[in-house]
Amino acid sequence: MATKGSTGESKIKQLPSGSYRAQVMIAGRRHSVTGATKEEVRRKRRELLTNADKGMLPSSERWTVGQYLEHWLDNVIKPNRRATTYRDYRNTVYRHAIPMFGRVKLSKLQAAHLEALYAEMRGKGLAPKTIKNAHGTIHSALEHALRHGLVLRNVAQAVDRPKAKRAEMHVFTWEQAKTLKDAIAGTRWEAMITLAVTTGMRQGELLGLQWRDVDLEAGRVHVSRQLDRDKTLSETKTDKGRRVIDLPPFAVEALRAHRARQLEHRLGAGPEWEDHGLVFTTYQGRPLGHRNVIREYAKLLQRAGLPHVEFHGLRHTAATLMLVQGVPAKVVQEMLGHSQVSVTLDIYSHVIPGMGREAADKLQRLLG
What we know:
Layout: E1 13-14, E2 20-26, E3 29-35, H1 38-53, H2 65-80, H3 83-101, H4 111-123, H5 128-147, H6 174-184, H7 190-199, H8 203-207, E4 214-215, E5 220-223, E6 225-227, E7 233-235, E8 243-246, H9 249-269, H10 290-304, H11 312-324, H12 329-336, H13 341-347, H14 352-367
Antiparallel strand pairs: 1-2, 2-3, 4-5, 5-8, 6-7
């Protein structure tokens, strides 16, 4: 983090008092260490640099929010989190937080600064979810500062967490799902959309699926990675996201047919084929772009005369259809990769009233 010279470690100098001092540049700021001997100064300097490499910053009343956030992004988030997470955090920091209160001393940051930021974001017409995500980013940064003694409290905890309106959920009915199944039969999109509707896998998980993750004999897929929008593979966000999903026989057959078509494309492409081991690819074996898939999917819906349900709605369709058919919520939770069953029930609470009516009708038929 520090290098020798004017921007790194300085020479150890003896002060008029007889003690010794050296200076170190860390994340753009100069810090001094003093000691009775040169060896003590060297030891303190090593400790300072070691702690800084671990993300433990030296306390300083002159440290601004902007300087701290830049350090947090580059030395804590970037090396330890997914590239997409770093990108999202960076956007929040540089577009909103730093312009609003980046010059405020870290020790002087107040809840009112955050409230003013969220009010300004609402005034600009930004989506509630964007404001909620900004709060989460700032809260995480200040929590790290609190753990390392840079602030006395996390002021984000004193601010009411912005609430994001849950978007209206659009799903296919059983009849519409059957129409979609017929419309994609024999197309290059059949296997992907079939998996989406039968497993609830996310788009990134489908695009990141590799043949080594597919067991056609056992009829199951292993979900452990996803394709990000920059077309790089990364692990799923959470441990729960890594899961094994059993497939219905027609989904297995769709995958078998897809593999045969892919082998034909591979032979046709010859030396232009790029082998990434992916199940779903371009005609040259390259990773598919998220937007291209969404565009082709929309065309399929239009040709089939189906209402527009976003690609992510296929995941909601899978969950809704399973719950309506009486599949236990715990099983649905594990298939979708939710952290807790309460998350599943919260998202699909609109299904519960119908399930309750169905249960009552069954009791009437059995005992009435």
